[in-house]
Design a protein that fits this description.
Structural class: alpha+beta
Protein name: Acyclic terpene utilisation N-terminal domain-containing protein
Strand content: 25-35%
Radius of gyration: 25 Å
């Protein structure tokens, strides 16, 4: 590989806290890496992390990975970049990650230069941009209103590579970023070193989930070598493989278009990309382009919702399973009737959801086969304005939920109780309410930086 205007980046894991193997990390760094970069956040698990500011992963799991990474940074003298800290990337989550890193540094007696990048937005800032006509919805969202902005517990803007580059140019050895596109945190160092924008963004997209682009996704991360007109990708594990199929297929991951990927400041176009094996483990990719566009950042916002209580049963009655659609419709109508009779207007706005796992709970689509399974798990979720109301609604539903007959003239059945007590209080629910983009002058306009020490 031509070392001028190129970069080697180790991506040891798809998500910080999922587990890093020391031998894989060392192997990648020994191959002449210029940086370690990885993602630590996602919206995959819903809005709770952003609404609460709490990490999806345990502190111990995140610290275990960070301890290996901080020690490796000190040993190999290459920068460490982490994007979307603490799952949501809000300010609270970045500071939580910083606290772990500072704790590790004290334990290892290290004092690296640390940069934190904050991309959480004040409601007033987004309101001002909205008034200026600089906020637009992404499908299927609708035009934004002030009430929605005010409902958000936290709002984040997804960063591109520019803040990471600025932090590194200011001397940072460890960069802990707020909410960032998965691709940008990995593309940052190649772009900073002068590699081609198309290969840098494409390599970042393929490597974003670590080993997910390999034939054995659970066997460690990957290393990318990015040049002016191409990039290569290789598993960190000597027993793992990248193939043209496993690499090209990752363009479909979390992306509705297999050829175009929208990023801050442009669009990655891989229409002309070619994926060719270098050997049985390494793939070389050419033909990637990055088309520059006016700079925008995606906005994510989460709001508090009502409270929920759940119950779960297992059904094996073949007669019920053979008529499950009508059974569920009758049960739901009966439960609503019963709650209304007991609580009346005191119930307020509430909802009872029946979700038959093993039938159509995932897709919600009609099922044509009339005998799909030998058993079915039926989940009831009662949603109401307070936790006490959600619990009371579930308790009112309890005897009907566990003993509802197929027909009124049949004897009462008993389905499989999963827990005792049956009612499991879930607490508050949360909702994503922002799925919009905001126009910015550049990639730094809505980002704040801080340095330690």
């Amino acid at each position: 590989m031509n070392t001028e205007k190129s970069a080697v980046v180790v991506v040891p894991v798809g998500a910080l806290g999922a587990g890093i193997k020391f031998e894989h990390l060392e192997a990648g760094l020994a191959a002449g890496a210029h940086a370690m970069a990885m993602d630590a956040g996602s919206t995959d698990s819903g809005p709770a992390a952003l609404a609460t500011g709490l990490s999806k992963y345990s502190r111990d799991a995140v610290k275990s990975d960070l301890k290996l990474l901080v020690a490796a940074q000190a040993k190999w003298k290459v920068p460490l970049l982490v994007g979307s800290c603490g799952t949501s990337g809000c300010d609270m989550a970045v500071d939580w990650t910083l606290g772990i890193v500072l704790e590790i540094c004290e334990e290892l007696k290290l004092a690296p230069r640390i940069a934190t990048l904050y991309s959480e937005q004040q409601r007033g800032v987004i309101s001002d941009r909205l008034a200026q006509g600089r906020v637009r919805p992404l499908a299927p969202s609708v035009e934004l209103g002030e009430a929605v902005i005010e409902s958000c517990e936290h709002i984040v803007a997804l960063m591109g590579p520019e803040p990471y580059i600025a932090a590194l140019e200011a001397g940072a050895e460890i960069v802990l970023g707020g909410r960032t596109t998965d691709t940008a945190v990995i593309a940052a160092v190649p772009i900073m070193r002068g590699a081609g924008a198309g290969p840098a963004w494409h390599a970042g997209k393929i490597a974003e989930c670590g080993g997910l682009c390999t034939t054995n996704p659970f066997e460690g991360g990957v290393v990318i070598r990015v040049e002016q007109d191409a990039f290569e990708i290789e598993p960190l594990s000597a027993t793992n493989r990248c193939t043209p199929y496993s690499v090209s297929a990752h363009m479909l991951y979390e992306n509705s278009d297999p050829y175009l990927l929208h990023e801050p400041g442009g669009i990655l176009d891989v229409t002309q990309a070619r994926y060719e094996p270098v050997n049985d483990r390494i793939v070389r990719v050419t033909g990637s382009r990055f088309i520059e566009k006016p700079y925008t950042m995606k906005l994510e916002g989460a709001a508090n919702g009502p409270f929920q209580t759940m119950m779960l049963i297992g059904i094996t009655d073949p007669q019920v399973l053979a008529q499950i659609d009508s059974f569920l419709a009758n049960m739901h109508a009966t439960l609503i009737e019963r709650v209304d009779a007991v609580l009346g207007e005191a119930a307020g706005q509430y909802d009872i959801s029946l979700r038959p796992y093993g039938w159509n709970a995932v897709s919600g689509l009609p099922v044509r086969d009339q005998w799909p399974t030998r058993e079915l798990g039926l989940l009831l979720i009662a949603t109401a304005g307070t936790q006490e109301l959600a619990l009371q609604i579930a308790k009112i539903c309890n005897p009907y939920f566990f003993h509802f007959p197929l027909r009124r003239d049949k004897e009462l059945p008993s389905y499989g109780f999963t827990f005792s007590p049956a009612e499991i209080q879930l607490g508050r629910s949360y909702e994503f309410v922002l799925n919009h983009i905001v126009e910015t002058v550049d990639g730094l306009e809505l980002v704040r930086m801080a340095y330690w020490p």
